[in-house]
């Protein structure tokens, strides 16, 4: 007997007339004595939120995590200003609670078995389904939403953004430590997160209709029944009318965050403008995309990446330098040229993983790494 296949439901994309911007940044709560994560995020939010009703603080998967969520903005500086006010408010509350704020791609020594999950049925279902891998998700990232005017533009732009996956990851990578060891990776978070059945690189969809068919199949087969959505590294956010870029590790500070947000925002608008002009957007074969993701996770800013369908390769630092030059005129138009031009500062200083690794190699003490990472939250301020 043949089971009839349900019709493909229309997935309404709430089109954005402008390239609006929203940012989500995940922060951890640290015990200043042990330097371990502590499950005081809810307590911190309950302390801070009533005093700052215009700021948006979210509970996250783990009870040690606060997510800062901006409203909808037209430009990067306004979004970063809102995040700055959020961090300042949380810092004030953290001091009152006797804890510290911290951000990174992963914690270098915390035991995932001792970190409680938030009391939410969806999270319990994720753990029940994913077991060992799901329970290890002591990882934090940045999500950047950019408004798109029409759903048929979404997948061409996402496929083009995938060619810049290693650029965004290498620049933000800051998770070399795990379970007390140096993993040898710049972003161990990236390797951990892709173990989940709904996470990882998106498939190469060529139209919105293909995406709708995929979403129907995932719902019928039960893949998304426990989460409600796929957690791809880049995905459409139909409810908001945005493309959501989720590649980057959570940076330790707002200064570097502003550079990554500016690069992300400008890239999305750049590819959308190319579509308007009728130009062909860049793509790479899936095997090159997968290799580039791995190389950026492994080597960070020391990665040699594939840059063309003919398998040409270049150093990602060289690519980033030239990309900043290319995108600066557009960034000036979008009001984020100053933030975009912080990218060379990261190249000179070294990304978060390199700074953490240098401290650990010198001291053999991850607690000193945590201290330094917490300090960066306070010291590396935005423009």
UniProtKB/TrEMBL annotation:
EC number: 6.3.2.2
The reaction(s) this protein catalyses: L-cysteine + L-glutamate + ATP = gamma-L-glutamyl-L-cysteine + ADP + phosphate + H(+)
Enzyme class, UniProt record, top EC level: ligase
Keyword check for Amino-acid biosynthesis: no
Keywords, comma-separated and alphabetical: ATP-binding, Ligase, Nucleotide-binding
Entry annotated with the keyword Nucleotide-binding: yes
InterPro entries documented for this protein: GCL_type2/YbdK_subfam, GCS2, Gln_synth/guanido_kin_cat_dom, YbdK
Pfam family, one: GCS2
GO biological process: modified amino acid biosynthetic process
GO MF annotation list: ATP binding; glutamate-cysteine ligase activity
Annotated family: Belongs to the glutamate--cysteine ligase type 2 family. YbdK subfamily.
Protein's UniProt name: Putative glutamate--cysteine ligase 2
Taxonomic lineage: Bacteria, Bacillati, Actinomycetota, Actinomycetes, Mycobacteriales
